[in-house]
Amino acid sequence: SICWYDNAFLPEEEVRISPYDRGYNFGDGIYEVFRVYGGRLFEAEAHFERLRLSAEGLKLALPWGIEGLRAAMSELVERNALSEGTVYLQITRGVAPRNHLFPAGAAPVALAYTREVARPVQAMDQGISAITLEDIRWLHCNYKTLNLLANVLAKQEAAERGAADAVLHRNSTVTESSASNVMIVKDGVLVTHPANNLILHGVTRAVTLRLARAAEIPAEERPFSLDELYGADEAFVTGTTVEITPIVSVDGRKIGDGRPGPLTRRLQREFSAAIG
Ligand code: PDD
């Protein structure tokens, strides 16, 4: 398919990544994953705003401007005739001889590609199992950086232990999962970790909270413990690729009756309606 690399649209075979790209050498960069429904970027505004905040956090310039990036992403979706799928956009600090200091002359390098992906209907319908792991990441998890090693290790450990995902916790406070946000339901109240520096401020998380408010489902953004997760009536993850996927067991213990709960189902329906 067609990629957008270093300001040009070109076939993937023609993309040539420099060995000296700081994304490659240091993980010195940021990214976004956008969902495309019906050929359109879903919640584009929110993703670009988060990209802007990530860039600010890493003191990374965005010479294209958000408008330039938005135009490029739309053109990429069009060129690949993408109807259902994702767009991956990453921006690194550029190409320079390896030195931890920011390079003086280097310009940021952007890469974007698309992928056809169907909605995860089976997981959304049946739910997934999760394990819990200590959240060993740094303290700027609100920046969407290329440094995903802790997330990768967590997801891999989950798979090796027969689970679909890892729910992360700091000293028993649940933060999020390896690649999505976590919400629980107890006595009709939706609870999720506050949007501070310890989690990624998920676009799907925000959409879900908005849908909950519109449906007059009480929602609290507050820290909750592992014990609250184990004892929840319902639990689910939210994310660009997982949408709203129920968690039906954690560390081998059933959540609720071990099946996706009614409030989760309701929010899934609202979400499907919202993506139209
Ligand atoms: N992951 N938390 C983490 C650590 C994430 O990596 C993601 C997204 C989310 C959910 O954010 P959003 O709703 O904006 O997608 C939460 C992307 C999809 C990824 O890395 O593939």
TrEMBL record:
Pfam families: Aminotran_4
Catalytic reaction equation(s): D-alanine + 2-oxoglutarate = D-glutamate + pyruvate
Similarity comment: Belongs to the class-IV pyridoxal-phosphate-dependent aminotransferase family.
Molecular-function GO terms, alphabetical: D-alanine-2-oxoglutarate aminotransferase activity
The species this protein was found in: Cohnella hashimotonis
Protein name: D-alanine aminotransferase
Gene3D superfamilies: 3.30.470.10, D-amino Acid Aminotransferase, subunit A, domain 2
Keyword annotations: Aminotransferase, Pyridoxal phosphate, Transferase
Subunit (UniProt): Homodimer.
Co-factor(s): pyridoxal 5'-phosphate
InterPro entries found in the cross-reference section: Aminotrans_IV (IPR001544), Aminotransferase-like (IPR036038), BCAT-like_C (IPR043132), BCAT-like_N (IPR043131), Class-IV_PLP-Dep_Aminotrnsfr (IPR050571), D_amino_transT (IPR005784)
Enzyme Commission number(s) of this protein: 2.6.1.21
